[in-house]
Write a structure and sequence with these properties.
The complex is a heterodimer. By secondary structure, chain A is of the alpha/beta class. In chain A, the strands form three sheets. Chain A has a six-stranded parallel beta sheet, with helices on both faces. In chain A, strands 2-3 form a two-stranded antiparallel sheet. In chain A, helix 1 packs antiparallel against helix 11 and helix 2 runs parallel beside helix 9. By secondary structure, chain B is α+β, with helices and mostly antiparallel strands. In chain B, 23% of the residues lie in helices and 21% in strands. In chain B, strands 12, 15, 18, 19, 20, 21 and 22 form a seven-stranded mixed beta sheet that branches. Chain B has a four-stranded antiparallel beta sheet with strand order 1-8-6-3, with no helix packed on it. In chain B, a hairpin with a 4-residue loop joins strand 10 and strand 11. The chains are: A alpha/beta, B alpha+beta. At the A-B interface, helix 1 and helix 13 of A face strand 5 and helix 8 of B. Bound molecules: thiamine diphosphate (TPP) and magnesium ion. The site of magnesium ion (MG) has 6 residues of chain A, from strand 7.
């Protein structure tokens, strides 16, 4: 199981510090499953729209582990943004604000589960145990992503909006056909996508196929309120999670800035899938605090007060407040984590700056698994061409 | 590694060629940290802050604020080891306090690649204007001189095309004296003859200009077709447009890094000054005469006691959630117009010849006097905004207009306009309709005046509203009712709100 996976039963479990009967979660918003308020108050349990009760039961160590994940993921992301501004990456899609949605769901995955990301899932990638430098190579243009999707059970980043939901559906159908569902240690698949993607034909097709073939798939929609500059009201008239009903599977909206609730909801949905109970949709309600990508200027289409309102719901601040109040962590712990994040980001920077440019001829390497005669001819021609320059190795 | 490092303006957004230095956040001598924001740069896509790539001390800043800098050009140099003692002249080429110039080495690296002339500009993989390589979207990074390696002897210099392309049985490359083709090295004859570049303009071709330059030209009302480009392949540069807009002669002056010089008022011997009509002035003139002589205008006036409204504003200002919001009387006027327009939608319409287009949305224009002249940016679908959102949108609109950054999109599509002539201290006016709109409201100064209030003459805060409307669409009755509603709201906003919403 992944390092720091808080799903492992361990000794010394801490009961939820506040024993509040929360029939439904977040005050004022009956639709939202929440276990940790923006102020850092713990809610013992929360009930989803279909009556499912969600709760988590973590050890202190696990709580601290989640906090560390959140901080590291944010810091590494900020470093990548800086590197783009300094001309070292061509582009970067920041996850700022969406850390809890990604860490909560990423840590809920079991080792055997397969994930299909978009281009923003650096936090999930981190939770899968992949070297965080991998997406930087992609956006630096020196490789195509570089990790082995089968080894880490994390597919390549997908830029074509929504396409990965179909890939995930096909994969999940395969898992079912292979008979790998139906038991506690069955396999489940998760597909990440955004609010904007829900308007794509691909995503709607994936909903239909996953539903009628009862695929072991969790559709995980990070509703960060924008598709580049298009606000949510240009995508939907109903809360996104309710779309699931029309396709015939359950949907739930979770506070995507609450790492605990996101973990609980995702774990539950994955377990249902692995037990053969079919797909479900999770809408992680969150906010993209930064620009869509480094090429974008959000001040042109949204007002500062909106950003400020979400700032108050920051996923890390509320976790810190909770850890402090419950004396699960103290100042020295927070300082240590900040220091660790700083060291790791400096390390990341150095490695990025030293990433070698690939030899041009390597572009032929991964076109086909076993090459092709036509490709061999092209490679030979190209090699000759490169050798025609002075100072070339040959 | 050298101690002094120069930072080149990177391509900040997938294929951009230049950026404007908006503001320096550091100055020469400052000690800075890694990733500390050093400069704000605006590109065609976004205004962004650039974080420092190295910690150290700022040694030189090469471009002042307001300059447009090509991607790849050094903008700042940083001493990465300021504690190591003074720097010898020879290591930098210039003392820190002299007029800073980037080192020769880094300038060489941004030199424009030799014009190939053999590959059609803009073809994918081919050389594009400015020595860039055309990629699928936009233009990619420069093919810098420094990156080009010389070919080994006996290899045709033009073999730049994609290697996978079939070897063409084309006539030998014409410029090659003895082009013994090195088979099977892919040699491709020129795809097409070089476009005729006669110094300035491609023969017969369309005008060459980058999208941001086109946009600038549109903003400034400059017709690209009338300009002679000074850029690569005769393309029109930002400076060409700015020069045309500022009225300077087209004769090439040396480009300076300073901000464009504004046209200076100068009287000749005849004590007359001739100002070319162009840019915003020209646009304004065209719009105003078109509107004045096509739409039959009627103007009505209404004087209102706004004392209660001003008190309501004060109460608003003291509320916690409104503390940091700019609240002005104009906000209430805007609200009044939006509410009244809901009650009388015909006021928010366009005369389109054989039909009248009535709009369900109000794109509320606010006339603003700027350095560039009169502009009328509008708030899109303002009727859907809460009062707070409206206040924020108005503040933003004004600030953007002040900094001259209003985008063309924000100036088009207006459906109803308010002109706040009161800020100039006058009572009212007979405004002319922006083309395509059917009504415009002038909001005069709010003054303390003797007014009959509850049967007694009292000093009250009073203002005069002037409403001009298109008499083809709006009859006197409708215009009056609308104006009356606006007035009623301003006389007693709370009561109007309760009554209407
Ligand atoms: C099929 C397709 N259409 C358009 C685009 C351009 N595009 C890139 S990101 C994006 C918005 C996606 O928004 P959302 O699904 O909400 O994800 P977010 O970026 O907010 O995480 C669009 C339209 C694309 N990449 N693919
Ligand atoms: Mg989105």
């Amino acid at each position: 199981m992944a390092k720091g996976d808080p799903g492992v039963p361990t000794r010394g479990r801490r009961a939820a510090p506040r024993s509040k009967q929360a029939a439904s979660a977040a005050a004022g918003d009956p639709e939202l499953v929440q276990l940790l308020t923006a102020e850092g108050e713990r809610i013992e349990s929360a009930t989803g729209p279909d009556g499912t009760e969600y709760r988590v039961d973590f050890t202190d160590e696990e709580y601290r582990g989640l906090y560390r994940d959140l901080v590291l993921v944010r810091k590494l992301d900020a470093e990548a943004t800086a590197l783009q501004r300094q001309g070292e990456l061509g582009l970067w899609a920041s996850l700022l604000g969406q850390e809890a949605a990604q860490v909560g769901s990423g840590r809920a995955l079991r080792t055997q589960d397969m994930a299909f990301p978009t281009y923003r899932e650096h936090g999930v990638l981190y939770c899968r145990g992949i070297d965080p430098i991998m997406p930087l190579g992609l956006f630096r243009g020196v490789d195509q992503g570089g990790w082995d999707p089968n080894e880490f059970k994390f597919n390549m980043y997908t830029i074509v909006i929504g396409a990965q939901t179909l890939h995930a559906t096909g994969y999940a159908m395969g898992v079912a056909i292979d008979g790998k569902t139906g038991t506690d240690d069955g396999e489940a698949v998760i597909a990440y996508f955004g609010d904007g993607a829900t308007s794509q034909g691909d995503v709607n097709e994936a909903f239909v196929w996953a539903s009628v073939f009862n695929a072991p798939l969790v559709f995980f929609c990070q509703n960060n309120q924008y598709a580049i500059s298009e606000p949510l009201e240009r995508q939907t008239r109903v809360p996104l999670y309710r779309r699931a009903g029309g396709y015939g599977f359950p949907g739930v909206r979770v506070d995507g800035n609450d790492v605990l609730a996101t973990y609980a909801v995702t774990r539950h949905a994955l377990d249902n899938a692995r037990l053969g109970q079919g797909p479900s949709l999770i809408e992680a309600y969150t906010y993209r605090m930064g620009a869509h990508t480094t090429s974008d200027d959000p001040t042109r289409y949204r007002i500062a007060s909106e950003v400020e309102a979400w700032q108050a719901k920051d996923p890390i601040a509320r976790m810190k407040a909770f850890l402090t109040k419950q004396q699960i962590a103290d100042e020295s712990f927070f300082t240590e984590i900040d220091e660790q994040a700083r060291t790791e980001s400096v390390h990341l920077r150095e490695r990025v700056l030293n990433m070698p440019n690939p030899e041009p001829v390597t572009m032929f390497d991964h076109v086909y698994p076993h090459g092709s005669p036509e490709l061999d001819v092209q490679r030979a021609q190209f090699t000759k061409y490169m050798e025609s320059f002075e100072g070339s190795a040959h | 590694m050298s101690r002094i490092k120069e930072f080149n303006l990177p391509d900040l957004g997938e294929g951009l060629t230049e950026g404007e230095i908006l503001a320096w956040l550091v100055k020469v001598g400052d000690v800075i940290e890694l990733n500390q924001p050093i400069v704000e740069v605006e590109t065609a896509k976004a205004a962004v802050e650039i974080p420092a790539k190295w910690a150290g001390q700022v040694r030189a800043i090469f471009h002042p604020e307001g300059t447009t800098v090509e991607v790849g050009t050094p903008i700042i140099s940083i001493d990465t080891d300021p504690g190591a003692g003074p720097i010898e002249e020879s290591t930098t080429g210039a003392p820190a306090d002299a007029l800073p110039t980037p080192s020769a080495a880094s300038l060489a690296a941004v030199e424009i690649a030799p014009e190939e002339g053999m590959v059609e500009p803009g073809l994918i993989g081919g050389a594009a204007p400015g020595g860039r390589t055309a990629v699928l979207v936009g233009y990619g990074p420069r093919t810098t001189a420094a990156k080009r390696r010389p070919r080994k002897a006996g290899v045709p210099a033009q073999a730049t095309a994609a290697p996978a392309a079939p070897v063409q049985a084309a006539p030998a490359a014409p410029v090659q004296a003895a082009p013994a083709p090195v088979a099977p090295a892919p040699v491709v004859a020129p795809v097409s003859p070089a476009p005729a570049v006669n110094g300035n303009r491609p023969a017969g071709g369309a005008v060459l200009a980058k999208p941001p330059v086109r946009r600038l030209a549109r903003d400034l009302g400059v017709d690209l077709g009338t300009l002679t480009g000074s850029g690569p392949l005769g393309s029109i540069t930002r400076e060409d447009v700015q020069r045309a807009a500022s009225g300077a002669t087209a004769a090439a002056e040396p480009l300076t890094v300073a901000a464009p010089v504004p046209a200076v008022a100068s009287f000749g011997a005849d004590r007359e000054q001739r100002i070319p009509v162009k840019g915003v002035r020209k646009l304004t003139a065209e719009n105003m005469s078109r509107s004045a002589f096509t739409a039959p205008h009627v103007t009505e006036f209404l004087t209102v006691d706004v004392t209660r409204a001003m008190k309501a504003l004060d109460r608003l200002r003291t509320r916690r959630e409104w503390r940091d919001v700019r609240v002005s009387p104009l906000l209430l006027v805007a609200k009044a117009v939006l509410l009244a327009a809901k009650r009388y939608p015909m006021v928010n319409s366009t005369w389109a010849g054989d039909e009248i287009v009535v709009k369900d949305y109000v794109n509320l224009g606010i006339a603003a006097a700027t350095e560039r002249g009169l502009i009328v940016p509008n708030i899109k679908d303002a009727g859907r905004l809460s009062l707070r959102e409206l206040a924020d949108a108005m503040t933003e609109l004004v600030q953007t207009a002040k900094t001259g950054k209003t985008s063309p999109a924000n100036m088009s599509g207006g459906t109803f306009t308010i002109t706040n002539v009161g800020v100039f201290g006058v009572d009212t006016g007979t405004p002319i309709l922006p083309p395509g709109e059917s009504a415009i409201l002038a909001f005069g100064a709010v003054r303390e005046m003797p007014w009959v209030h509850k049967g007694k003459v009292k000093p009250r805060l009073v203002t005069t509203l002037g409403l001009s409307f298109d008499h083809r669409i709006i009859d006197g009755e409708l215009g009056s009712k609308f104006l009356r509603d606006v007035g009623d709201f301003l006389a007693d906003p709370e009561a109007a709100l309760l009554a209407w919403t």
